[in-house]
């Protein structure tokens, strides 16, 4: 059984698939616009210190997500 | 067909396709009632002129920013009789891009798809069956590569036969449909990482990204200075000294070598000749300052900035500075208006609309208007402080940076609400398309000449009138307690502060004949940046934010100027 954690708890290089987003309609729509949905496979590219943004890659797209938003994206780590 | 709308996600190479389709004549206009700009050009199809519009990039048709709202409006206002949509798609990101494509199909406007970055599909390990995709979507899909021009001719041919798609779906099954399409048309291969991707990752990792950012900033600064100084020394000054000065001397004699009209047009003769820095006539200093002293720096700044923009570096910088920018109530992307503001505050102010909340826009505006000097001013201050070297530069730009940080932190504390989260795409590094890049630099230069030169001319004219009518002396006497008492400046500096409302470069130019001490030069340079943005910037800001918010911002400006000027006068 793989563990489910938030995006900010993952380290660069790790991969997983999105299983949940704790956010309003707007956030989910914005994520979809960038191609991030429930079931999307993502890889962590980098993390900044001091609660900076997380950069993930999803398909051929790389997206930077602010810490507060990244915290609300749940991922099943693989 | 009367017009073509180029629509698509941001970072799909829309602008390069745009410059491929259109000729040299390109207009940047504001969408009515907004400050959102879009680019418009003309393309000849079968001997008829067709309007081509580069619509601001948007991820969905449910807009989140002012710019995206305009994109949606433009699509909504179109009708199927006279419009064709060219949906530019990043073929290396088919699934994500089809989200917008499907939404556009629902508008039932004739449409074709340009599968751009086709050349990149090979090394990203993607193979797309375009015939199958065209069949599934019910419209033509043409592989293109904006940079090499591949597929552009076919695109132009197909625009004429664009069809309305009969593709049907409901919202719930949209992603299902997209998934099905992608599965049918796209094959993915294994691939190796390329150098540009490695570099891309290194520049968003803090341990390597921060040194890269420092190096990039250092190189940019050196290049801007080198090109700017070279152009001033080898083009600007020689042209004025050797070609323009003799002509002006003839005009001077013609005007009787003196008198009011002579002084307005030619200015004061210094040692019997024209001194382009000090004479202060409309046709001497009024042309020399914008064209020979400032324009070279504007050119080199925008050249370097456009390379940074088009290569895809700026979003990476935004990621690195994000947590620091949160301290001043902005997120990482807030660095971009500030960098643009270093060129000219007007485009900086216009770019503030990419920010989502009013609070952010207010903080960013105030910080930019107060503490970000424009290239026109930097160029003039460099000239003025050049002989003192870093002894002059460090206090001036250091104080401004400190003001920016402290004021930002204060505003972040006292204004209600909090800064929103960064959420941006990081496009892959790409080699800029040089023709598109030069076109952009060219448009920015034309824009500078059109906007700045008239203001400089008006400023020089006004200052001559104010001197002649002794109004400057009058204002000087009233403001003496503040100017001399608080800021420690001679009364003569009042004239520069008055003209600083119009243009900063002219204002700095007026300090030349005053023979100020280093301390006074530092204080005036800082005060001139802070107390008020130039007239053009102010006009844009009032339009963008309304008079009430700008009144608040202006109060902050005046107060902080007095405090900072007073402190500098006290400690230096």
Overall pLDDT metric of chain B = 90
Question: Assembly state here?
Answer: heterodimer
Query: pLDDT average of chain A, as an integer?
Result: 91
**Tell me about the biggest sheet of chain A?**
6 strands, antiparallel
- The number of distinct β-strands of chain A equals 6
Report how far apart the termini of chain B are. 67 Å
Shape of chain B: elongated
Spatial strand order of the main sheet of chain B: 2-3-4-1-5-6-8
Number of helices in the DSSP assignment of chain A: 2
Task: Determine Rg of chain A (CA atoms, Å).
Answer: 11 Å
Describe this protein's structure.
The complex is a heterodimer of chains A (78) and B (572). With 78 residues, chain A is α+β, with helices and mostly antiparallel strands. Chain A is built from two helices and six strands; from the N terminus they run ββαβββαβ. Chain A has a six-stranded antiparallel sheet with strand order 1-6-2-3-4-5. Chain A is globular, with a radius of gyration of 11 Å. Helices cover 61% and strands 9% of the residues of chain B. Chain B has 24 helices and ten strands. Chains A and B meet through helix 1, strand 5 and helix 2 of A and helix 3, helix 12 and strand 10 of B.
Topology:
The complex is a heterodimer of chains A (78) and B (572).
Chain A: E1 4-6, E2 15-21, H1 25-33, E3 41-47, E4 54-58, E5 61-65, H2 67-70, E6 73-77
Antiparallel strand pairs in A: 1-6, 2-3, 2-6, 3-4, 4-5
Chain B: E1 3-8, H1 14-21, E2 26-30, E3 37-45, E4 48-54, H2 66-77, E5 83-90, H3 94-105, E6 111-116, H4 118-123, E7 126-128, H5 130-137, E8 141-143, H6 152-159, H7 174-185, E9 186-188, H8 195-202, H9 206-254, H10 260-265, H11 285-311, H12 314-326, H13 335-343, H14 345-350, H15 358-371, H16 375-385, H17 390-414, E10 423-426, H18 434-468, H19 471-486, H20 493-499, H21 504-509, H22 518-530, H23 535-545, H24 547-571
Parallel strand pairs in B: 1-4, 1-5, 5-6, 6-8
Antiparallel strand pairs in B: 2-3, 3-4, 7-9
Helix pairs in contact in B: 3-7, 9-11, 11-16, 11-18, 15-17, 15-24, 16-22, 17-22, 19-20, 22-24, 23-24
